[in-house]
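Subject: two folds for Thursday's group meeting

Dear M.,

Sorry for the delay on this. The cluster queue was jammed most of the week, so I only got both jobs back this morning. I'm pasting them in the order they finished. Each block is the input sequence followed by the predicted structure tokens. Could you check whether the formatting survives your parser before we put anything on slides? The first protein is the one we discussed after the seminar.
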Amino acid sequence: MFPTIAANSASEYRQLGLSYRQQGRYQEAITAMSKSVELEPKNLMGKVNLGWTLHLVGREEEATNYLLQAIYQEPLKYSAYNALGIVYLVDDKLINAVLIHTLAVILKPDNEVAYYNLSLALHQLKIYPMAINAANYAVKLEPNNPHPLVSAAINYWDSGSRNLAQNIYRRAIKLDIRYQNSIFLNHLQQAAFTEEQINITKQILSSL
């Protein structure tokens, strides 16, 4: 049930859905966002918001459907590519993730999200030189975010440059001291790291 105050227009349903999502009330958020898309099917952000929220609850196939609709509707909108690329990444569709994030970079060359996720996908594909380049560029674009540094570190580590991986990881610790805590590293799952990538990060930490 929606509160009495909110729901008449597509815009109001979108705002209500975002509010629910911020509160972690995902099912209610999806209901509100679905209504906004029903009322205003040509609104791109309505579909992107709905697709992303479906992804957050693990409904990847439905998320993909709405995000593809957004891309077909407006092929030059990089935000839809970013969201779809992450859906593909966590759904282990790595080639699709690389393709979509590459298109996102073409559309927005200073797209730190796309470069970061490219580095994670390419790491899983063991294409380390390209993954390192992507991670380092994400670091350049977003120097205060530890996530691209950690991605660079695991790529250097698996490519054999272990001293460099350790030095890069120390930079992440300088940004956020919690990266010295092995248990804290489990949160990297929320940043699209796989369990294997988290374990590699823990290896780097234990080697310092």
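Second protein, same layout:
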Amino acid sequence: MKNKNSNHLKFFLLIWVFFGNIYSPFAQQRNEELPNVVLLLGDDHGWDETGYNGHPYLKTPVLDELAEVGIRMNRFYSASPVCSPTRGSILTGRHPNRYGTFTPGFSIRPEEISIARLMQAKGYATAHFGKWHLGPVKAESPTNPGAMGFDEWLSHDNFFELNPYLSRNGADPELFEGESSEILVREAMTFIEKAKAAGKPFFVVIWYGSPHEPYSGLPEDLALYSNLPETFGNRQVQLTSNETGMPVKRLQREVLQERFAEITAMDRSIGELRNYLKTKELKSNTLLWYFGDNGTPQEANATVPFREQKGSIYEGGIRVPSVLEWPDGLPTALQSNVNMNSADVFPTLAFLIGEPLPKRPIDGINLLPFLSGEKLERPSPMLFWNGSPRNLPLKELKAYLDPKLQEGTSPMVKLMNGKATRDFRNYIQTDIIPTDFHGDRAIINNQYKLVLTENKAGETQFELFDLLQDPAETKDLKELYPELTKEMSNQLRIWQESVLNSLLGNDYKKNK
């Protein structure tokens, strides 16, 4: 088995080298002028919630235009069905279970190498704006944006609404009055202006607080959705009250009015940024990339065409909208049906700026040959896993970082145990036991998806779907294709072994 795995690895490395050597337009672009890069991330923005994906009521004219004139990725996935792990995958190109960022509230580890560090070393001015959620953003945190390679940051530990509290470069949070998406873009434009004056390319990351609940919108945005049909969203849903910070049940249609207002404001802010880049003659050589961090949440699930929602390994939890624009480098509009995911950001940008990948397992791939339409099938499967720390009492789990350093400071509406702030955690793991392989997990090749789950008795259940014919995952094909089921299951298991090896910290030892 080890020899077979080694051969597979050599094969994929040869593919990577082949792409790197033949893809001369991007090599030429790197040599002439480094492109600016702007990454935009919606918080809980599901695949169905864009006009270009056919939403019956939601207005997203800017994203719709990007989908028309740029690259529209129809089969783009978040690395996780929840937010913090996906954010880790964007920065590292690695599955978040490798470094213990299992779910919201788990920090990244300081030893991880972020794409911001690579950009910084290449001479980029780097900045983060908005939701961080990979550890506290305070100055003393070893996992704040600065520690991960951002020169400047105006960030929040978690999510936020109108009039957010944000920390500038680790200082105490301060109140910023206004619509949060517009605030972030305004701050980003100020940073870009400084980078431009200094003659530096810029790497700007804007992680929106929208459209995560609880919802709030400007009057003019709310008015756009004041006449949603009475038959739409006609059920009670639970979410956070803006008044009390506690759970409340409300009519979904009223909730969606507020959520859609947030999405429209976020969409408008993207348009403001694009207009600024055009005015400053920066648009042509700026790669601007937007996608969501996980699927649509339960209280907003009204138009999801896939199975389940946020938190699930099924398509409704991990399929997200994604559009990209880069006039100089990718001038031809394209709709791509290639499988792509958030872990691909790191290797794509690393290749773009001519930086080698770190000497540790990287789960993403360079997407540039696919974004141009030169290649039409992903060379290796995508893998997903809702892992978790070992099921032991907390006192038996040893903290990876000093708990004091993991205490958050950014106020938010939603209370937890009476607190308006959030703390983080990460644990040391020193061995592997059979149950460490449990947790909902999946492997997706160019046509089929295998899903593994455990029932209450701890028995593993298998489901196989043809995503090309059945994207809603309604028909289980494992009985029809037992050999394919076995083959994909074995691939998934081998990958899990690699992930758990990383979780033990062995990747960091190799790089000392």
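Two things I noticed about the second structure. The longest helix spans residues 252-279. Residues 1-25, 27-31 have pLDDT under 50 and may be disordered.

Cheers,
T.
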